[in-house]
Each structure stands twice: as structure tokens, then as C-alpha cells.
Here is the input.
Amino acid sequence: MEWFEVIMIYYVFFALCAGQEIMTMSPIFRTSYTPQVFPCGGNSEREPHLLTSPGQLEPIYWETKHSDPQGNCTIRLISDNNFHTYVTLFTIQYNKTWFPCGREDAIERYLIQIPSRFICRDCTLQLIWETTKGTLYKCADLNIATGGDFCKDRCQNKGICVQDYCQCKNGYTGEFCEIKTEEQKSVFYYIKIFLLVSLLVFVFVAVIYLYHHEEKIPKGVRDFLAKHAKWALKSSSESSV
Here is the structure.
């Protein structure tokens, strides 16, 4: 087979697949640049999220253009961006993995139920439409959380779970406060540093002054220095020379 024949077959197949089209309406799906490309129609960019909760009924509807009389769909829920591990979502109308869809040029509406006890952030809702001319993919992004359950008992380093997000203590960040950051210095920290440096400067100046004005040192202190720290007395230093 010549190379140009291979190219022609590829383009014919591409054109046939591209003829099938689902215009998703709700939730907000990612734009599909090449709908036949797994897993999300050639689009890996995350777009606005649907926020829902475990056990919630959510509507999903689309308009089919260029229908296929043998079309079937399945809807999957993916977490951690792993498209080979998923949960199949059943519609209320069809309680099975695959259901007939896209068989007429019309708007179709289904109700799906989010699994109970299923909580995740940055999940992916994947719609797969199988037709006689190929398979098309659409993806939407969503968060599934409720009443603080998402981060309950998961916040680290004394973080507090508030409305599904961890509020971290100073010095920590991250989704669950697991990342240690450089602690912010308070104004009192700098005041203490200033006072300590000032004290050291004062002591240094006082020692230099008294070294050159030994007569102003009280006799008791001068006797103590003469016995234990002769180097601090100018007269002792001069007499030893």
C-alpha cells in the first residue's frame, strides 16, 4: 500500500468520526478539539468546576447533532486523573453501564447520582459516546464535598477544617497544611533583636569608657576586677608591661 493511500484512509476515517457530534450543555464540559481522542477529546486543560456532594442527583444534558441510530453512552467518574480507574455513574432512566443515546438529533437530558461517601477534589466526569463510526469523548471537572467532610481529620500540623478547606497555622501551607514554610517574624521578634543588640553595644561602650576612666569604678568592683580580670583594668595592663 502506497503512503498516500494510507493518508487518504486516515483522513476518511477522521472525517467519518468527526461527523458525529454531541454539543454538551450541562455541566460545563471542556472544549473538545479532537473528540475522538481519549480521554477528553484532546483537551487536558481544567475549566470551571461543578460543585456537588455525595449522593446528590445532578442533571446532565446535551444536544446531539449528526446522530447515530446505534449510539450508546456511558458516564464515568475519575479521581486523581487516573482514567483507567473509574466509577461508572448510572442514570436514573437507565440503571446500567451503557445506555442508548445520541440516536436522534435532539436535546437529551439525564439524571445521574453521585455515589454516597464519594469525596474528591478536581475529579473528572467523562462522557463516552460509542457510534458505528467511532468513539467520542467529553470531560467536565467537578468537586465532590460536603460540610467539611473533604478535609475532616485530614488537616495536619493543627490545621482546622472549615468548609472543605484546611485553614493552616502560621508556618504551614498546602492542601492539608502538610508543607512547612518559613515562619513569618512578628514585630516583637524584631524588637527583641533590637534590644539585645542595644544592650551589647551599651556594655561594650561602658567597658571601654571605664577602661579609660578607672578612677570612676567603685572600689569593690575595682578590687574584684584586679583579682579576677586584671585585663579589664588599664593600670594593671600598664604595670605588667
User: Anything to note?
Assistant: The domain at 3-144 is CATH 2.70.50.50 (Coagulation Factor XIII; Chain A, domain 1). Residues 1-18 have pLDDT under 50 and may be disordered. The first helix runs from residue 3 to 19. The chain is about 25% helix and 30% strand.
